[in-house]
Amino acid sequence: MTSIRETSVRQHIFSLYNLSANEIYFEDYIVNCQSTLNDDQETKIKGRLKVCSKSLVFVPIDIRSPMIKILYKQITKFEDSKKNELSLTDSTIISSISNTNKKQPNSLILICSSVILMSINGRIEPYTTLYGTHRFYFEFIYTNVEDCLSVVGQLYRATTLPYSEQVMMIESIVQGRLKMLKFDLTQLQDLNETILFEEDAYVIKPLIQNPGRCLLTNQCCYFQALNNINEQKVAKYDLRTLYKIAKRRYKFRYIGCELQFKLINQQPNQKKILYLVFANENICSKFYDTVTAQTSVKIDSTTFENMTLRWQQGTISNYDYLLYLNDRGERSFHDCSQYPVFPWVLRNYTSTNLDLHDPQSFRDLSKPIGAINIERLERLKERYINMSLPSDHQRFLYGSFYSNPGFLVYFLCRIHPQFSLCLNDGRFDHPDRLFHSLIDTWKSVLTSDSDVKELLPEFYMSSEFKDIEDDDDDGDRQDGEFLMNKFGIDFGIRHDDVPVNDVILPPWAEDPRDFIKKMRLALESDYVSQHLHEWIDLIFGYKQRGEEAHQADNLFHYLTYGVPEKHLSTPIDEYNEQLSFETQILEFGQVPKQLFFKPHPRKLTEQELKEHKHEEKMTSTNMASTVIENITNLTDLQLTDQSIQRLPSFEEHDLGQFEFDSVCRLHKTAITRIVPHPSLPLTHLLTIGNDGFLRNYMVNKSKMDTFCFVSSRPLTCLKSIPVHLAIDTNEKCSLAFIGSSDNALYIFNLETGTSILSQVLHDDIITDLYVTNRSIPTLLCTSSNDATVRFWSLENLLFMNEDKYIFQTNYHFSSKIQMQYDISFDSPCTCMYVLEEHSLLSVGCQDGSVYLCHFQTGQILKQLTSSSSSSSLPILSLSLRSDGLFLAYLSATTVTLVDIISGTDVFTNTCLSNEQMFKSLFYSSQMLIVGLTNGSCDVWNLKTGEKVHTLNICDKISITTITHNHGMFFFGTDDGSVHSYVFASRLQLSI
Predict the structure, then answer these.
(1) Reported confidence tier of residue 99, pLDDT bands at 50, 70, 90
(2) Residue limits of the BEACH domain (predicted)?
């Protein structure tokens, strides 16, 4: 976005902002102008005549003469130098007059009823309209007048038509001229470039759409405008500097594409933006796909991935997260009807000191801005009840909106006065309605029935926080410059005789820079961090529309939510209605795209981060018991965050390095589980596989120690525990609990290699198991493809004494374990995870469902459903964080980390191709490791949400299971091998 800067250049600079909003500039001609505006009508003024869709604009070379805009609708007569007259008062009749005008050869003569003078002496000021009959003579120096008359005649006729037909005719003229536009191939950066895409497009900037030709090669993206508005004929964008690309919704249709490029040899936080709009969605998608497929495009997708998780953990600021949400919500700095929206966070604009530790300094973020004042809200509700509208219209509380072009112009009129002149037909608003004082604006937002505006990002853009700038060529931006009348514009005098100059700041702000700094500190404060998720729910989340919006007093005019479905594909007879919808957007704005359909999780406060920078140690109230205590209606089971302390889980960005140690093939077929040996945890591992064997692996010698044959069917799950043979002795052994695809459980004594129990527990494959270490009696929990999770008593085999398993001396080997209770599901249970200290059981199913249950009662607390398109695929693995607040789960195509309290996905990653599907999962507080079918593992830092390693474990062999034990990671593979890696970490991992 280009702001007006002070300049010493003594000539006019014509801009598309000199035209009406979205008016098209076609071409210009070098002319000499004579007119009745001058005292000396013989004086010729040299300049350029700009032919535009709604007007002619004469731009004199001498800045002492004003630019002159002549609206077609004010023109009463055209003539050329041969007196060939186009009668504009009698339809389209053209009469030829044979007289020759020797005085004005090759000239266009026009008569109009009014003219508009712009930029008198180069000043930024409202335009001046002169009424009365005025005659102009434009002498064409290098071109023939007939060339100009042909297009001007068409454009004039368009202005005499009804609005919808006028727009259609202008669009037709634009399309006709675009067809004749040939891209200048001499402008290519390299003649060896391969042309991949070429289509008509519009470049979009606030209030501006400029047509031209877009050409894409394997190296660059080019745009050649239909006109000569730019200094360079062709704008060039090097794909190697492409930083980001996103599809955009423009006028209700997904036909826009916004590209951001890093500027070479500029500040690293600057970028250049190209916002293109195409004729339809197919062309737009083709352009997007072609760009992203280029090898020269190196977009770091991790920069924008998993932002919710990064925000929760405090890695990114509230400001950056709001920018991210605006971006995902289809908001753009180049679309004034969808400009990024930020909240009012303060309500104290009167005191001399601003206390950011006082909650009374802040606005209630749980309510929309229109609902903060109860008296006003009651008035609006009464109007809502009495509102009478056609049946296809929905009633609304607020007739205005919190973000629209008018509010953008209101706040930025000092730094971007051209916006106001463009949108308001060459005028600034009345001085009493201009942005004059922060306290006055806040009072209006609280009391006026028609004022519910929120703020812009500019209110929080502080250079002290090193923000990414959002202007593509505004590198010298100053903090709060939009609050200063740096161009000395005369905005007029208010009713109290006070001139409108710089914005009057609150007493607690020393100057604009200090104001912006304190506004930003307020945005990043603990209070806002604790409550910002509530505002996100209103603007981007589940309270944005529907019944939740109604309950939250958050209802706006129905068109701000988008065109009704029946209007998305508009026939000719509805064209006028479609245009009225677009006019509504330009005036009232649009609701952002809805991003969340569940309550948004809150952010960890700064104090929490300081208090808990060490490795998490859960000291809060047991979550599941808190849940049950707070649930009074069992038909509406929900998790609450009362009495739950959210803790961060790591402190460094650098997790550490993986160093290969050894590899050993233990099984003939795939390894299904690896666990530490309970009696020899530092030196031995236990593995099971599809070959039916249980094997004891010596890590320090990288070879197999002992083995047991368990079943002729593949083994699926394994749990091992140390057992004391008596209370008063240290003599002990180890037991292995093994689930099998023959539906049976096997228990083995690892010291003797003998079987203790073999019992069928399910009607289908046992997929997972767990042995309790806290409950009385000791329980075995098993999940199965028969769609049940069953709980079995082990009291005849084991009992607990002072946190030790004690073997029952009177156990009879022919005894069977008895089922205590079970949980039934709608789909086969493919995996489970138990967090016994918090009484939580998570279950993954074949249909992609994930359930959270109370471990002791079997009560289903919550069903967690992924928002990804692959949620119907079976869940392969899942794991709970040790504090019970986050759950990671994996399907063949997607890995997801979900905030359990809100149900919001805070981290997601999707596999790139069918050749590298997801297979196995390891999750700890610091990291997430995903094993793939191509033999590699991706390692993600959950503090930053970034992928920090890709481990190439083996070649084209699936990673079937991942285990961590005492500073080492062990990867089981589809060929029966165990790959060992030493993990050198800067952190004290407790995994």
Answers:
(1) very low
(2) 296-603
CB-CB neighbours of 374 under 10 Å = 9
The answer to whether 434 and 383 are in contact (CB under 8 A) is no
| pLDDT tens for each residue of 477-487 | 688 999 999 99
Q: Which helix (H) or strand (E) segment is 274 a member of?
A: strand 271-277
In the block, which residue shows the tokens 């057992």? 723
- Cα 475-479-483 angle, rounded to 5 deg: 115
Sketch out the chain's domains with CATH numbers. 16-160 (2.30.29.30), 181-305 (2.30.29.30), 335-471+478-559 (1.10.1540.10), 656-985 (2.130.10.10)
pLDDT tens for 460-473 read 998 888 654 444 44
Q: What single-letter amino acid sits at 578? A: Q
Q: What is the mean pLDDT of residues 641-653?
A: 33
Tokens at residue 436, please? 């004059």
Nearest CA to 47 out of 690, 35, 500 is that of 35
Q: Closest Cα to residue 727, out of 798, 793, 792?
A: 798
The pTM assigned to this predicted structure is 0.78
Q: What is the pLDDT of residue 271?
A: 60
Q: What is the pLDDT of residue 533?
A: 95
Closest CA to 551 of 350, 743, 397: 397
Greatest Cα pair distance, the chain, in angstroms, is: 128
492 close to 430: Cβ distance less than 8 angstroms: yes
Q: Reduced to 3 states, what is the DSSP secondary structure of residue 413?
A: coil
Instruction: Give me the helix-helix angle, 405-412 and 575-588, nearest 10°.
Output: 30
- In sequence order, what are the residues at sequence separation of 6 or more whose Cβ sits closer than 8 angstroms to the Cβ of residue 314? 603, 604, 606, 609, 648
Calpha distance 197→179 (Å, rounded) = 16
